[in-house]
Input
Amino acid sequence: WHQGLNIRYWGILFMVSQKVKILNPSGLNLGSATTLSNSVLKYQSAVQFTYEANDVKGVANMKSILNILAAEVNQGQVIEISCTGDDEEEALKSVLDAVNSGIGELV
Output
């Protein structure tokens, strides 16, 4: 899962991130937002994703179902997931596994 992994240094904080394409047909709807949020709640790291829609860039907290839904991410859209904290690599792997498996939907 390290292919395309970015590690950045911000002062004393490290961050891991990776771009991923949303594969599931319904995009990030209520069910998939709930699944994603639940998959990262157990981690202490901050987990978020950046997205772009209609020439507007945004950042969504992945521990918030409402933040995920507000991003209105559709199938085929590429988002960049980033994690910062003690367990950042485990958190990123968990999210990437969920997204790459279709977040509970057939892809």
